[in-house]
Amino acid sequence: MRFFDPHIHMVSRTTDDYQNMAAAGIRAVIEPAFWMGQPRTNVGSFVDYFATLVGWERFRASQFGISHYCTIGVNSKEANNEGLAREALELLPLFALKEGVVAIGEIGYDEMTPAEEWVYQHQLQFAVDHDMVVMVHTPHRDKKNGVLRSIDVAREVGVPMEKLVIDHNNEETVQSVLDAGAWAAFTIYPNTKMGSERMVEVVRQYGPERIIVDSSADWGVSDPLSVPKTAHLMQERGIDPSAIELTCWQNALDAYAQSGQIDVEELLKEPVIDQSQRFSDNSVLRGQQPRIDEPVKN
Amino acid sequence: MTPMPRELLDTFLQQRLTNTASDFWQNARAELGSGVSRSRFSALIALASRHAKRHPVALSETEQAQLQEALPGLDMRAWNQLELLRVALVTARSDLESDAFAADFEAQFVYADEGETCALYRALPFLPGPERFVWRAGEGCRTNMLNVFSAIALDSPYPAAHFGDTAWNQLVMKALFLELPLWRIAELDSRLSAELTRMALDFAEERESAGRVLNPGLWLCMSPANKERLQPLVARHWEDAEPHQRCAMIMGLARAGEHTQVQHLAETESDIDVARAIDAALGGNFDQHTFAHLVVEENESQP
């Protein structure tokens, strides 16, 4: 099986993760711009972070046969530092129109403050103006209300529902998202919140249409193999193979390919890792033999 | 009359772009020619990815010959069509000689993605006042992204023409370290030096200590300097070397002026390819192009 993890923060992960992900069949990832775990202190920090997402991290992923796309946006937590957030928003046109940037995101609410709302609206407008997909992060606290509000505001600004991906759903929010016509993504967290077992039941109950599985793996306790693990559990529990394909590959591709920033033909080619072609042993390989011509195992 | 390099970019593009991409290029060229803001310049370079793909440029022999005549040392074998379009966009500005352009060009590197970074560096040989960008090119060589480094170092006349000795030697040594095809560094032959040969010989000994194989490109760094260290190095590796490595060693010995040694090896050599290399060397042919022809295997491709 091949997998697409449409929400994972690879800058926080090691090359071991990349290796294991490729071995498990993950062929493509989307890395949304997000919070770095502690507050940023100046706009230069955003510049270098966004530049990393479209530069170094893209290169790093390519060394493991994984296609790396990203989203650009000012996240909800950092929206609350109003002065800095305004400066960061000025960077949007410089980064969001780049090759391989598949959405504005992850944006939305954290505490649902007026500052968050202003930054969210501003970015929704940017997405509408540039015909872009939007990836929405929904809050951990007061989630149900947050999901509804995220959808309402996006609709008011004029985001077409088929270009809206609402992430971090659970059993309580999924119906509202599907009813609105948006895509409903689920983050599989080990031990907490949404686990693979619950995900299987969601797919059983709601079917595979517009449902997307992701890992949101980052610098916290998280699992970059959540998507393949969930797929295998679905298989064990008798979920239809086509539903697994949709929720763990095709839906993410369909949602984000609307950006025009995924070369689908290129992505569908059999990936071959050739580290000797574009690899420096002063960067990620350190003296070991580069891997050549070993097709990614699926 | 020889066409200007920038006119050639347009000709090559017209042969390759789809109709809609061609419209984008024509409109952008007109816009750039009449003056744009820094952010619009940046946006046009970014938006090019919506119109051109990363397919190889693949010049015909005629086009290759035209390019060689217009801009000796430049080869587009590793260029893709998106890069070609982006380089054309950069050079479509009418103020290339101005300080404003230099500042705008430098600013692009701050916000450039991986593909744009390569294209920006590929533009260097096309820019007037090339000495203005020497720091930028040196900075680019500090990258850890191999495709970015290759875009500066390989198939381009820029480094040999403008780098000082320190930066030049670092470029060649880094290419060797990264196991890139050294024969694709333009004017490597004319900028060989005693210092570069010493650095390469030191590097070879480091590789020996680490028990790692020697890259054939090493032998392209040989010159008459330090030749007393060359013979023992060849002696240590000759027996176990593959034929293409032996060919490379022959080239290295010839470049160091060790023709007696080459003759000596000829007496016992039975491999046809190595024998061919020996003939070439003794006939005075051991430049980087001969090296490429004799040593580089069919399957050696480029990033």
UniProtKB/TrEMBL annotation, chain A:
Pfam family, one: TatD_DNase
UniProt keyword annotations, A-Z: Hydrolase, Metal-binding
SUPFAM superfamilies from the UniProt entry: Metallo-dependent hydrolases
GO terms for MF: hydrolase activity
Metal-binding as UniProt keyword: yes
Region annotation (Disordered) ranges: 279-298
Database matches in InterPro entries: Metal_Hydrolase, TatD-like, UCP005295
Family stated for the protein in its record: Belongs to the metallo-dependent hydrolases superfamily.
Descriptive protein name: TatD family hydrolase
Automatic annotation (TrEMBL), chain B:
Source superkingdom: Bacteria
Protein name as catalogued: EboA domain-containing protein
